[in-house]
Amino acid sequence: MTNNQNKKILLVEDEFFITELYLRALRKKGFQIDNVANGLEANKLAKTDQYDIIILDLMIPGMNGIDILNDLKNNYNLKAKIIIATNLEERKEVKESIEKKADGYIIKANLTPAELAEFIENIK
Q1: For residue 52, which phi and psi values (nearest 5 degrees)?
Q2: Share of residues in the chain with pLDDT > 90 (%)
Q3: Mean pLDDT, range 46-60, rounded to an integer
């Protein structure tokens, strides 16, 4: 088992119930987590480059996840792995475009919080 206490996660999710479930599952695995519900705040925090993993919802207020992903990947050389977490079934070409920039893409409805935590734990 990896030492998750050394992995710091930025969880960007605006749905309170989902946030609580994810926080509980990720903390149970030992991750350090900051969470925000606003895209502008998320983009600002991500640029501090203090995170190992960013779990990024696409539909958030302030600045959407696609714009954040594009800004971070086009303008910054961050160490963080960016995982897109959405319930939107994107058109094939949109999904492929997102997947080219992101380090992972998950459909939230298809994963339990425990499965998400396990997925995150296996990211190198």
Answers
A1: -90, -35
A2: 74
A3: 95
pLDDT score at 21: 96
Please report, for the domain that includes residue 56, its CATH number. Answer: 3.40.50.2300
Alpha helices in 12-112 (DSSP H): 16-28, 39-46, 65-75, 92-101
Instruction: At 28, give phi and psi (nearest 5°).
Output: -60, -30
Whether pLDDT at 15 is above 90: yes
pLDDT at 1: 45
**Other C-beta atoms lying within 10 Å of the C-beta of residue 27:** 14
Q: Which range of residues forms the domain containing residue 76?
A: 4-121
Q: Are 71 and 43 in contact (CB under 8 A)?
A: yes
With 0-12 CB in 10 A as exposed, 13-18 as middle and 19+ as buried, what is 9? buried
Q: What is the CA radius of gyration of the chain?
A: 13
Residue in the block written with tokens 């919080």: 113
Domain count, the chain: 1
